[in-house]
Amino acid sequence: MTENVQCVFASEKINKVRFKHENFEDARYFVTGSWDDPVNKIGYWMFQKNEEDELYPKNISSSLVLGDVTEIKFISYDTFVFSSSAGYAKIMKLQDVPYPEIKEHHSWDKLHRLNNRQSVSCTALATFGQDIVTVGEDGRINFLTAQKNDPVRSIDNADSCSLYCVDFLRHNEILTGNIRGHMKVWDLRSDQDAPTTTVMLSEQAKTEAMCIAHHPTQKHIVVAGAGDGSLTVWDLRYKTYPISQLSAHSNSISEIAFHPDRPENLYTCSITGEVWHWNNSQHSKLQLDTTDTHWLCTIGNKGKLQVNSLHTLHKPVNSIDIDRSTLLFGCDNEAIYVMKNLNVF
User: What is the mean pLDDT of residues 303-330?
Assistant: First the structure.
């Protein structure tokens, strides 16, 4: 199969793209979030056949947003939560009958603020089922659940500087990354407002932690993308030092995504406009001991790791998502790209 790239002009800078995943079928819908406009949008898209009888993305509904959309995560088949640079998070529901519509289900306002007044950016969020955690420029962590109107818990002074990324490791444990490159593990069962573990993104140079992703089946394996373009890998069972660190993109990594079904495949995008595919399926077949080894342990071994550039643009690529053999990514050139027939090993 050869890769097939479609480009759709969206008339807005795309900061987030997320497939609406469907069981046993290729995803037919996805949502987008824009940024850098006075009023931004959440977009609802569907793959429809065009005049050439080819499936092509078409916007079927949109909803106005105050602030930049900083993250989107689905919490069920038709429900997602998004965060905003205006300091809030909202749950939205997709409705297809009688017509496509994005409806607000719930809002948490002023989650992130200075001196309890001025709102600051809710920079990222993560989900675990119906549980949600947000982080922001104020260094605050908020724990939310879709069933409650108010935060379940807030850690007001979780960090002395801006938090840029967060991820659930398990239902009671999260990992945060900040502007200084500090990675902190938090136990949600603890009544102490302090992390259980703190590690540095890089011992050589201070750089921001921009994004985090965990392995789909081995959640103790974590990959972080940095502001200097490097990738750092941890096995959190051995929390002191990274497994490896690799100079990857020449500038900040925007997002990291494991293939959900074939985790030997990792995808990264960067503000340099690059989209890369990292594959170590050959090494995975040789080392099947998932207790002590993993393909990411050899991420710096170029003899065993294949790295391919899938696409290069002249504007930052801000977000990626993958469903089976289709890769979706959004860019600052006000376009959405769909790459089909990926070689997933």
Answer: 92
Of residues 22 and 286, the one with the higher pLDDT is 22
Q: What pairs with residue 165 in β-bridges?
A: 177
Q: How many helices (H) and strands (E) does the chain have?
A: 1, 30
In single-letter form, the type of residue at position 168 comes to F
What's the rounded Cα separation, in Å, for the pair 1 and 166?
A: 36
DSSP 3-state of 282: helix
Beta carbons of 65 and 39 less than 8 angstroms apart: yes
Task: Look up residue 124 and give its amino acid.
Answer: A
- Prior bond to 151 cis, omega within 30? no
φ, ψ (nearest 5 deg) of residue 226: -110, 165
Check the CA dihedral 35-36-40-44 and report its sign. negative
Give the residue among 159, 199, 196 at the shortest CA–CA distance from 179.
Answer: 159
d(CA 112, CA 72): 17
Q: State mean pLDDT over 240-254.
A: 88
Q: How far apart are CA 142 and CA 87, in angstroms?
A: 11
Q: What is the pLDDT of residues 103-148, one digit of tens each?
A: 999 999 999 999 868 999 999 999 999 999 999 999 999 999 998 9
331 contact partners, CB below 8 Å, separation of at least 6:
13, 14, 273, 313, 315, 316, 317, 318, 337
Q: Encode burial over 279-315: b for 16+ CB neighbours within 10 A, e otherwise.
A: bbeebbeeeeeeeeebbbbbbeeeeebeeeebbebee
- Separation CA 321–CA 14 (nearest Å): 13
Q: Is the pLDDT of residue 166 over 90?
A: yes
pLDDT value, residue 25: 76
Place of tokens 């119906």: 130
| Secondary structure (3-state) at 302 | coil
d(CA 95, CA 102): 6
